[in-house]
């Protein structure tokens, strides 16, 4: 009885227009959640509209706390999806997006490990022509750039930036050489050292991500 009285008092503070706004937002959010679950809207469309609706709801909640819960209970409005989203306070796709980004980063890390190993093995086997080495190092630098774009600009991607800087110089050098050109012994040794050093840093970085 006390709970119902409290809800009524909350709603009594609002005029008819404000109550209509609360009801409309509740219905709009319920419809959006249902449409997303049913596959009628994309993640991007859902996230954009959900953020907009939640922002409007927050304005009303700040002025009249628990107004949506109170209206739903007082008038028996069936909006379970909307009320759940209001309690969460964020669109339902944000956590999924984070997981997807982590999965993409993990795949790129795995791909990079294979590319590092392939390049190191090629150098150990004595490959010294541009046509043999350039495709390997170019693919590696391309993958590093892809990973760099997906990572936050913070300390954790210093290893990626450093790798791009060092290996990018070799990539540029080989790009400007003819396919039949061969690297000198000292160049091959330096490239091997750079690659193995960077790969070592990468393996340490990977262990910290586990």
From TrEMBL:
Organism in which the protein naturally occurs: Babesia bovis
Protein name in UniProt: Vacuolar sorting protein 28, putative
Subcellular localization, as worded in the UniProt entry: Endosome
Molecular function per GO: protein-containing complex binding
InterPro entries: ESCRT_assembly_dom, Vps28, VPS28_C, VPS28_C_sf, VPS28_N, VPS28_N_sf
Gene Ontology cellular-component annotations: ESCRT I complex
Name of the gene: BBOV_IV010370
Recorded family membership: Belongs to the VPS28 family.
Keyword Transport tagged: yes
VPS28 N-terminal domain: residues covered: 1-96
GO BP term, example: protein transport to vacuole involved in ubiquitin-dependent protein catabolic process via the multivesicular body sorting pathway
PROSITE patterns reported in the protein's UniProt record: VPS28_C, VPS28_N
Keyword Protein transport: yes
UniProt keyword terms in alphabetical order: Endosome, Protein transport, Transport
Domain VPS28 C-terminal, chain residue ranges per copy: 104-207
């Amino acid at each position: 009885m006390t709970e119902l009285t409290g809800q009524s008092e909350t709603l009594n503070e609002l005029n008819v227009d404000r109550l209509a706004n609360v009801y409309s937002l509740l219905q709009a959010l319920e419809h959006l959640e249902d449409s997303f679950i049913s596959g009628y809207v994309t993640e991007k469309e859902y996230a954009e509209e959900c953020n907009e609706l939640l922002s409007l709801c927050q304005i009303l909640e700040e002025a009249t706390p628990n107004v949506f819960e109170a209206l739903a209970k007082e008038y028996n409005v069936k909006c379970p999806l909307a009320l759940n989203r209001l309690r969460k306070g964020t669109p339902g796709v944000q956590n999924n997006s984070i997981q997807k980004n982590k999965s993409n980063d993990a795949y790129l890390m795995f791909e990079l490990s294979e590319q590092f190993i392939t390049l190191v093995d090629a150098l150990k086997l004595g490959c010294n022509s541009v046509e043999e080495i350039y495709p390997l190092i170019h693919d590696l630098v391309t993958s590093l750039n892809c990973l760099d774009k997906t990572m936050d600009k913070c300390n954790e991607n210093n290893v990626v930036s450093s790798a791009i800087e060092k290996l990018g110089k070799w990539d540029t050098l080989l790009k400007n050489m003819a396919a039949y050109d061969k690297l000198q012994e000292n160049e091959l040794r330096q490239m091997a050292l750079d690659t193995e050093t960077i790969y070592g840093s990468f393996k340490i970085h990977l262990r910290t991500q586990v």
